[in-house]
Amino acid sequence: MSNQFETIREVHISQMIVESFARDFVDSLELDVAIVGAGPAGVTAARLLAQQGANVAIFERHLHVGGGMWGGGMLFPRIVIEQDASSLLETVGVRLHPWREGYLVADSVETVTKCTAAALDAGARIWIGMFAEDIMVYHDRRVAGVVLNWDATVQAGLHVDPLAVEAKVVIDATGHDAHICRTLVTKIPGARLRSPDGGVPGERSMWAARGEADLAASTIEVFPGLIVAGMAASNVAATPRMGAIFGGMFLSGQRAAELALEIIRASQ
Ligand code: 48F
After folding, report:
1. Which pick of 87, 144, 245, 251 has the fewest CB atoms within 10 Å?
2. Whose CA is nearest to atom 1 of ligand 1?
3. 11 C-alpha to ligand 1 centroid (Å)
């Protein structure tokens, strides 16, 4: 230990970081499933897909994962979960506190960290700081992957060309933005999503019970190769927002994973 300050040169640290990043990122260039957004829907889908052996990665624009979970309701770090969704959290060790009949309360920090850790442990990769600015759509007919740039590059307004990642299925789990779905209908002339107006009409005002109930039916393949989940699905289907009740988000992630597996298996 006497020479501990002399055994490593700074360049060794740089080499370890760059080489390990490159090795793992190359494995994320051709995916079974590319998930955009590391909120509750995206992280749940990633865990369940990885558990089924899929090569899956999440691309998250922020340096932190968890999306809208951290702040709970109006910065009170608690989220409400319906009984139906409780097993998706209990299985990753989140402690749920029964409050009203059929409803439980979870600590938002515990929920984010345990759900994320479980997705990573299952084998999903999560890449932070990456903005999915666009998608590939072959022959205007099928989504074939995502187009990435560093979010910092985008925010700085720099003109830097992106890189592309191929995926058999893309899941838009970008929350209220529904960024991937919006991009598709903006950039592909005549493209129509499976939505009330063929585009992204946007969410309706808050009605928690209805919004949660509608989410399962809204989690669908909206365009060949593109599944929408979580609040993005609510925005595409024009269903009510629901605030800090999250069971529907986890169940939507689960449904998205099931659909993605069906699409992959049907293509084999
Ligand atoms: O918003 P978010 O948590 O989406 P969600 O999984 O859950 C919604 C709830 O958090 C809450 C709610 C519950 O009733 O209403 O809002 O549907 O997570 C979406 C994540 O996607 C990232 C964004 O930073 C967030 O972490 N994101 C959005 N657009 C992009 C993106 C993009 N183009 N590229 C990469 N990440």
Report:
1. 87
2. 175
3. 36
Instruction: State the Cα–Cα distance between residues 207 and 191, nearest whole angstrom.
Output: 30
What is the residue type of 187?
A: K
Per-residue tokens: 20:
């390990």
The pLDDT profile of the chain, 268 residues, written as one tens digit per residue, is 556 677 899 999 999 999 999 999 999 999 999 999 999 999 999 999 999 999 999 999 999 999 999 999 999 999 999 999 999 999 999 999 999 999 999 999 999 999 999 999 999 999 999 999 999 999 989 999 999 999 999 999 999 999 999 999 999 999 999 999 999 999 999 999 999 999 999 999 999 999 999 999 999 999 999 999 999 999 999 999 999 999 999 999 999 999 999 999 999 8
For residues 115 and 92, is the Cβ–Cβ distance under 8 A? Answer: yes
Do 41 and 252 meet the contact criterion of CB atoms below 8 Å apart? Answer: yes
Non-local (6+) Cβ contacts of 164 within 8 A are 136, 145, 146, 147, 148
Strand, coil or helix: what is 131?
A: strand
Question: How many angstroms separate the alpha carbon of residue 154 from the centre of ligand 1?
Answer: 18
Distance between CA atoms of residues 167 and 151, nearest Å: 20
Residue 37 CA: which ligand 1 atom is closest? 21
Q: What is the CATH number of the domain that holds 62?
A: 3.50.50.60
Number of domains the chain contains: 1
Name the residue range of residue 138's domain.
4-267
Whether this model's pTM surpasses 0.70: yes
